[in-house]
Amino acid sequence: MRAIILCKLGISVISKVIDELKEIPQITKVMSLTGDFDVLAEIEVESSEELFDIFANKIDLIDGIISSNTHLIMKAWEK
Description:
Blueprint: E1 2-9, H1 14-22, E2 27-32, E3 39-44, H2 48-57, E4 65-72
Antiparallel strand pairs: 1-3, 1-4, 2-3
């Protein structure tokens, strides 16, 4: 299963947060954004339990992430 994680960050932490997200093996993409969210990460896991564990033990512990919004990808099309 794949999900998109949108993150709002504090001030002057974008590089640090991106580096920490990139260290998580299940995160396949990290992007800097304009607009309401500062960073988008795509994650691929085997189960909802694994997604919970990664949030509880890794993502939620990253200093600088003020809030996040996660969306499961139901189906994707690529050109």
